[in-house]
Write a structure and sequence with these properties.
The structure holds 2 protein chains of 2 kinds.
Chain A (H helix, E strand, L loop, with lengths): L1 H20 L2 H8 L1 E4 L7 E4 L1 H4 L2 H15 L6 E5 L3 H12 L2 E5 L9 E7 L4 E7 L8 E9 L3 H12 L3 E10 L13 E7 L2
Parallel strand pairs in A: 3-4, 3-7, 7-8, 8-9
Antiparallel strand pairs in A: 1-2, 5-6
Helix pairs in contact in A: 2-4, 4-5
Chain B lengths: L1 H16 L1 H8 L2 E4 L7 E4 L1 H4 L2 H15 L6 E5 L3 H12 L2 E5 L9 E7 L4 E7 L9 E4 L7 H10 L1
Parallel strand pairs in B: 3-4, 3-7
Antiparallel strand pairs in B: 1-2, 5-6
The chains are: A alpha/beta, B alpha/beta.
Chain lengths: ~200, ~160
């Protein structure tokens, strides 16, 4: 039992190392622009729009996620409005999964379920269509970046409330100092780039 | 001139007859009285729940645009972000998001447009698009054409 667990940890470490060494990551990382003092003073905003201006780097970003997820029987990719809508659909299309948009209140027409989450000041809300995801489905949650993990946590809850199993959260960028990783209800996180 | 018109019409007819279009059309859901009474809202989210139909939607656009030397696909927030990037990726173009005010960080240019009551504004990053780029504008739906017109003005 102990040996098996150790092997699994070693395999995970090998996989992480493979990702860290992947030459495509350097170009992806350099393509992301940091914009100081946006949306307010003191915040260093990680701007992925410059990545989208480089077709090869954008393609590589999608490929890295697709390579990881294509044989995991994922039937749903849920993307968080609005930048999750840029990365989620190309991944969904390539792995043959449905794409489900998770949106701010009052954007989705028809019947929705809502999950509230805490902001620095106040709260906000994430919504998903009733019936979009069925019990037993395996889901991936996608966003451009994880900061505090609040929105991703709300996304996981929405999917679990309808009986889906969230396999993992996938983001291009992580801000590790904000410890968002710890707010994911025990779900794992896969990221391409860390920003300190 | 007449030959060009004939060729265009022939292509449009081919697209109308394309069997994929029927499945795409049937997968779009109409939601009455959203966002307000009297409006029949065209909901594409149900199309996104059918991988083949979504795939076909993107393929139909890619087939049309892949050899047209398009260097920029501009998508209008937020549903244009769902269709634009897959098209951009397949034709090898940049993707440029066109957004509501105060969403894009850094330097932007703005274009105002009329709403039924009042006006709104669309923004694009300075430097994303260069003079001479050939652009395609993508959104899920065209209604009055106000946002698309603003998009065209930003690019032009």
């Amino acid at each position: 039992m102990m040996t098996e667990a150790k092997e699994e940890v070693n395999n995970e470490k090998k996989q992480e190392q493979q990702v860290v060494d992947d030459p495509r990551l350097q170009a992806i990382s350099s393509a992301i622009r940091v914009v100081p003092n946006f949306p307010k003073p003191g915040i260093m905003f990680q701007d992925i729009t410059t990545l989208l201006l480089q077709p090869k780097a954008f393609k590589d970003t999608i490929d890295l996620f697709v390579e990881r997820y294509k044989e995991k029987n994922i039937s749903v990719v849920a993307g968080i409005e609005a930048r999750g809508f840029i990365f989620g659909p190309p991944i969904a299309l390539e792995i043959g999964a449905k794409f489900v948009p998770l949106r701010k209140p009052r954007k989705l027409p028809g019947e929705v379920i809502s999950e509230e989450y805490v902001l620095e000041y106040g709260t906000d809300c994430l919504e998903m269509h009733v019936g979009a995801v069925e019990p037993g489905e395996t889901a991936l949650v996608v966003d451009d970046l994880i900061a505090t993990g609040g929105t991703l946590c709300a996304a996981i809850k929405l999917l679990e409330r309808v009986g889906a199993q969230v396999l993992e959260c996938a983001c291009v960028i992580e801000l590790p100092e904000l410890k968002g990783r710890e707010r994911l209800n025990g779900k794992s996180l896969y990221i391409l780039v860390e920003s300190h | 001139m007449s030959k060009m018109v004939e060729a265009e019409e022939a292509q449009m007819k081919k697209e109308d007859d394309d069997p994929r279009v029927l499945a795409i059309s049937s997968s779009i859901r109409v939601v009455p009285n959203f966002p307000k009474p009297g409006i029949m809202f065209q909901d594409i989210t149900t199309l996104l729940l059918e991988p083949k139909a979504f795939r076909d939607t993107v393929d139909l656009f890619v087939q049309r645009y892949k050899d047209k030397n398009i260097s920029v696909v501009a998508g209008i927030e937020a549903r244009g972000f769902i269709f634009g990037p897959p098209i951009a990726l397949e034709i090898g173009a940049k993707f440029v998001p066109l957004r509501k005010p105060k969403k894009l960080p850094g330097e932007v240019i703005s274009e105002a447009y009329d709403l039924e009551y009042g006006s709104d504004c669309l923004q694009m990053h300075v430097g994303a698009v260069e003079p001479g780029d050939v652009a395609l504008v993508v959104d899920d739906l065209i209604a009055t054409g106000g946002t698309l017109c603003a998009a065209i003005n930003l690019l032009g």
